[in-house]
Design a protein that fits this description.
The protein has 350 residues and is mainly alpha-helical. It has helices at 2-40, 48-56, 63-97, 110-124, 133-158, 163-187, 190-201, 209-228, 230-237, 240-245, 250-272, 278-290, 294-318, 327-349.
């Protein structure tokens, strides 16, 4: 009798597992397709097959096309994948550990503090001409973002890890950082204000190979720890009281997750600016497709985040011929309608 009861359940579980693995594979294929479209899209008229040959044999391309492909398009397209993956992962863990569907790296104030650091660097940089702008700006953004993570961790320890207190403190940091950034814009020159606005919108075109390797390294260091805690995160998602009764130290787990989120968000935004909606919408799409099991949700959120930002990068170059729109504008154009659809669907479920 037990075998007759469990066998259909095992078969059903195996079917669900195969379906989720197939969805992950489909996301991966879609991400690679978007990456190739991103590399092949741009003002320079390079044929697709010529581009593929240039990837395999760079010497087969003319010098100008080789520079465009290897020094401009390829690093821009790859950092879109890295940043999107980092923001997708950070968003999924933020929403789970804070039990808030509206949570994202920006909710904790990390992205807003990065913008404050970048704005400060733009305003004070003329007084430090010895340092390159390519070094000062991301360094200041990274330092302020990591400072935000340190403040959140310190506050979490002081309040014993209450998720309500963490959310409120993060919102307070957002308002504080936005107010300080507005104050810097008020006293800055017109050129500095324009540069601050351009950075805060989000832009992939200033990133190169060093930036891509740094963001990718940060993601690769954090990702295994996220995979290590998938069972604990799934348990938290089922209910904090249930997780505590099962012996999980939820407050300590929340501290570790906030540390991971802070590192991911800091390195993701310090080079490309505060790109919105990826960390919010990507995990929701993955959750709708894959469910709450974090064994599938975590890699799904990574792939969804990478796919969304890569698609936005393609559209930023394709919407207006000869013009590259800042990718942050495109992510908002994509994210807002998707977000509204998610809200409506969530309302229908209630």
């Amino acid at each position: 009798m037990p075998n007759n009861v469990t066998s259909p359940l095992s078969i059903e579980y195996a079917q669900i597992k195969r379906k989720r693995l197939a969805l992950l594979l489909a996301m991966l294929v879609a991400m690679i397709t978007s990456l190739m479209l991103d590399i092949s899209t741009g003002p320079a008229n390079i044929g697709f097959f010529e581009l593929l040959q240039g990837l395999v044999d760079p010497d087969s391309l003319e010098m100008r096309y080789r520079i465009i492909l290897w020094d401009v398009r390829l690093p821009d397209a790859l950092i879109a994948i890295s940043v999107g993956a980092a923001l997708g992962l950070a968003g999924a863990e933020t929403q789970t550990v804070l039990n808030n569907p509206l949570a994202s790296p920006y909710t904790l104030g990390v992205s807003a503090l990065a913008a404050l650091g970048a704005s400060l660097a733009i305003v004070i940089h003329p007084s430090i001409p010895e340092l390159s702008d390519r070094v000062v700006l991301p360094m200041m953004a990274l330092m302020f973002a990591l400072l935000g993570g340190f403040l959140i961790l310190a506050f979490t320890r002081m309040t014993d890890g209450s998720r309500e207190h963490v959310i409120l403190f993060g919102i307070a940091l957002v308002f504080f950082a936005n107010a300080m950034t507005a104050g810097l814009q008020y006293v800055a020159s017109a050129e500095a204000v324009q540069e601050i606005v351009f950075w805060t919108i989000g832009n992939l075109t200033k990133a190169g190979w060093p930036e891509f390797f740094v963001v990718t390294l940060a993601f690769l260091i954090v990702f295994p720890f996220s995979l290590r805690h998938v069972w604990a995160m799934t348990l938290i998602r089922a209910g904090e009281s249930h997780a505590v009764s099962s012996g999980l130290n939820v407050r300590r787990m929340r501290t570790w997750v906030i540390l991971r989120i802070s590192v991911l968000a800091a390195f993701a935004v310090c080079f490309v600016g505060t790109i919105g909606f990826i960390g919010l919408v990507g995990p929701h799409i993955a959750r709708l497709l894959l469910g709450e099991d974090h064994r599938f949700l975590i890699p799904g959120s990574v792939l969804c985040g990478a796919l969304l930002l890569s698609t936005a990068s393609v559209l930023s170059k394709a919407l207006l011929p000869g013009v590259i729109i800042p990718v942050g504008i495109v992510t908002a154009m994509i994210g807002v309608p998707v977000f509204l659809v998610l809200i409506i669907q969530q309302r229908h479920r209630l």
